[in-house]
């Protein structure tokens, strides 16, 4: 009787272990080879074209059961002209998927119609960090086969005062290297 109980208990434990979900393993991948360039537009406005390759991603990130949890682009800009104290002190911009020319948004992409937005603090002159959530675009580049022509950061189309404009913002001479950090989970 004791042997049968022990055997039944052992069988129950083994069955429970087999029913447990697979383990998840979190990972982080950093891309430091990034090019940020100014692309002139009209009336002193410009776009920032940000390019980086996704060719050396870890194999476990590309597995069918893995997920991209968060992707962040980080770089510096130089604020040349602070906003008067009566204004909000923030410049709004949009994050778009770039077309092959690096100057215009990729046409026909629903993401660009409802682009993500960011804010740049314009309260004082000097270097300012920009951190942008680019998870949705990285997901589309990695999983959906969207061509990676880089990102375009442009002044918000709804804003009266454009943030990416000559005399307001520029790329600093000596700035922190831009980076893209991708956090992912392997669910195998």
Explain the layout of strands and helices.
Elements: H1 2-19, E1 25-31, E2 34-40, E3 46-52, E4 66-79, E5 90-97, H2 110-113, E6 116-121, E7 126-133, H3 135-143, E8 151-155, E9 169-170, E10 179-186
Antiparallel strand pairs: 1-10, 2-3, 3-8, 4-7, 4-9, 4-10, 5-6, 5-8
Description:
The protein has 188 residues and is α+β, with helices and mostly antiparallel strands. It contains three helices and ten strands; from the N terminus they run αβββββαββαβββ. It has helices spanning 2-19, 110-113, 135-143, and strands at residues 25-31, 34-40, 46-52, 66-79, 90-97, 116-121, 126-133, 151-155, 169-170, 179-186. The strands form two sheets. Strands 1, 4, 7, 9 and 10 form a five-stranded antiparallel beta sheet that branches. A five-stranded antiparallel beta sheet has the order 2-3-8-5-6, with no helix packed on it. Strand 2 (34-40) and strand 3 form a beta hairpin. The protein is globular. The two termini are 39 Å apart. Residues 14-22 have low confidence and may be disordered.
